[in-house]
Amino acid sequence: xxxSLQVNALAAPGGYIVVFRGLLEQTRDPEELAGILAHExxxxxxxxxxxxxIQHTSTGLLLAALTGDMTGPLAxxxxxxxxxxxxxxxxxAEAQADAEGMKMLLAARIDPAGMIRFFEALTKGDKQPRTAxxxxxxxxxxxxRIERLKxxxxxxxxxxxxxxxxxDWDDLKKICSGPGG
Length: 181
Fold this sequence. Notes:
Elements (H helix, E strand, L loop, with lengths): L8 E4 L3 E4 L1 H6 L3 H16 L2 H20 L3 H15 L5 H17 L5 H13 L3 H10 L3 H12 L12 H12 L4
Antiparallel strand pairs: 1-2
């Protein structure tokens, strides 16, 4: 977990999932966090991070080949590190991570409502137009996203099993907050 107050998690190369402190503080129950983690796991399993980095690097190498400027690949290599910090997936990749993440939750009998509640809260909490425009450019429409997730959740044949008692969830959040949290 990173100590940033940013409400975010991301899938990094090598199969790592980075969870920011702000995200943990904003999740209201373990099912919400499980939904986010299932979504990020799908970015890892579907290799979305790797594809995005390859696409970014390929563009730089193509430009270098066309122009003969060999400083380009070095610049694009350095740029790739920066891209990781602000990696955005395509709408298709986001929709795929949503759908496959939901299927993962259902298979594990984790309440799918947690994932839906988190995306609803995220949508309602984004009051800054600039942030909203950036989010909408790379993510499915929030209303469509939530409707698709609800439709998938309705297909669940089994009743969900609670992940943690409320007191255990509170204890876990305190532990992850670190000293003085």
